[in-house]
Model the fold of this input.
Amino acid sequence: MGVRTSLHLSSLLAGVTLLGATMLLPGCNRSAPKTEEATKAPPAADSSAAKPAASLPQQIADVMVKANGGIHTGFRFNHAKGIVVSGLFTPTKEAKTLSKAAHFSGPAVPVTVRFSDGTGVPDIPDTDPRIGPRGIAVRFNIPGGGFTDIVSVSHNGFVVGTGEDFLGLFQAVLASGPDAPHPNAIETFLGSRPLAVKFLKETAFPPKSFATAAYFSNNAFVLVDSSGKKQVVRYQIQPAAGVAYLDSAATAKAGPNFLREDLEKRLSRGPVVFTLYAQLPNAGDPTNDGSLVWPADRKRVTLGTIRLTKVEPNQEELQRSLQFNPTFLVSGVELSDDPLVPLRSAVYALSVAHRK
Ligand code: HEM
Done:
């Protein structure tokens, strides 16, 4: 993975990325592209002293919108730019030893997959260093009409572990204009959070292809087998093509939409394949903080193969209507004690409501 070796807090201020959210700083000369539809963020629900403070999800939605330069009508607050493809997920025999869920214990099921750039800026160039991690959202379409989602990003370890910290990070960046005295809010925030700095550094360059990134759920889920036995896991989605990232020279030469073009080209030649794993924690590994990575020596169970074969037609309409959510679960998969998942779900719902 390409990593900037001399990244300082000051350069982060020029274009902080987190989870792909573009942090636009007042007066910053690297303002993000805006669409014609970009408008001012709606007033926060707590703008009147008479009203109760906005909920945490609402406050997060408000800062995300602000960081993206306003609402981009019809697009997600985050991971706005993407491509939807489809294929088949074939579970392994081992998968059903962990989960009785239909997609893990039965025959192969169709999947709908959306790859995305971070940020809520729909026309951001794929090469922009502020994009942060790329996303993959996998929908397992279960026979009989049900479905369940796995929503992951291309970094092992999330930028922060709690919704409060996520809000704090955005607020700190938005408060750190060029005229703010040092140490400013984001310098102070990141100064005590080395894992967030690591995340920002390691997501500064794009993968060579959506098909050459590894993706991580970071948040933990609970798999339940047919006898009711429960196992906490985190998902990993590893590319059969191997992990490959662009360096700065290659990034400078790549086109603004190269990730989509590359995927279309690859799929016209043959399937794009990923392996889905469940990583199992050892006793004592934290399950309630997605920023704390479980060591690489932890047991991994291969759950199956995702074989993508087709770019879906009607991209615009499909991307607008598709709603992925990490809490869309089926029998055999449950929430863990990770508080970020329900919080995410609430913020995603606000984003979905805005693109109707
Ligand atoms: C506090 C934490 C987080 C917040 C507030 C947040 C917020 C959002 C929002 C608002 C969206 C747009 C939803 C929509 O309109 O459909 C989104 C999409 C997405 N998020 Fe998060 N997110 C968080 C954490 C994460 C984590 C931990 C991951 C994965 C490890 C992740 C991966 C994604 C992906 C892949 C998408 C795009 C889904 C799609 O293609 O529709 N997010 N996020």
Remarks:
- The chain is about 25% helix and 20% strand.
